[in-house]
Amino acid sequence: MATMAAITNFPTIAKCVSNGRENHTVVADMDGTLLRGRSSFPYFALIAFEVGGILRLLFLLLVTPLAGLLYYFVSESAGIQVLIFATFAGVRVSEIESVARAVLPKFYSSDIHPESWRVLSACEKRCILTANPRIMVEAFCKDFLGLDMVLGTEIATYKGKATGFVSPPGVLVAEKKAEALKKAFGDVQPEIGLGDRHTDFPFMALCKVCPVNLAANLG
């Protein structure tokens, strides 16, 4: 089992063999791991435009500098919460689900990282663990890719509409990703944990093998 003292020694995904994984479980991050792009902003922008038109998109664009400042200088979680609020506040959950099912998959599918998919597709049980709202990514991961489980940030709702806030335990980053993995898998240790940044290391350290995707971009 990997330890936090050994995180700098995680191998790159190119060194992770895919043969003989038929009975294995893999847990992977989304942005920068399953997908080549490390930013989820384009997908928030797509949803904002689809559910609220140009005005909602403009609002998202206006708050994006604040989100960036929070993301890089305060916490990853705070930056993502700003994007979630600007994109989802006041929107019917059914509308978000519809866009996530009908619009996002064609954009997500064009950005799949081939090395990550090589490893994911070789395993029997496949799970995505992401800071993105689960409602955004679940339809693509389960219906399009046929993955088994999606663990993501849960958005708060009231009377069928998103409030713009997130439900406990909050945005899944760093230790909260590790906690979500432990809650979902219990004492079972997944064979492979895929990530691309230091905030993925806590959940990756709970897996037997921890390949890093795009190691040169770690931040």
The separation of the N and C termini measures 23 Å
How many helices does DSSP assign? Answer: 8
* Structural class computed from helices and strand pairing: alpha/beta
Low-confidence stretches: 1-7, 215-219
The proportion of residues in beta strands is 5-15%
Total strand segments: 6
Major sheet description: 4 strands, parallel
Helicity level, as a percent range? 40-55%
Strands in their spatial order, largest beta sheet: 3-2-1-6
Describe the structure.
With 219 residues, the protein is an alpha/beta fold. The protein is 44% helix and 14% strand. It contains 8 helices and 6 strands, in the order βαααααβαβββαβα. The strands form 2 sheets. The protein has a 4-stranded parallel beta sheet, sandwiched between helices. β4 and β5 form a beta hairpin. α1 runs antiparallel to α2 and α3 packs parallel to α6. The N terminus and C terminus are likely disordered.
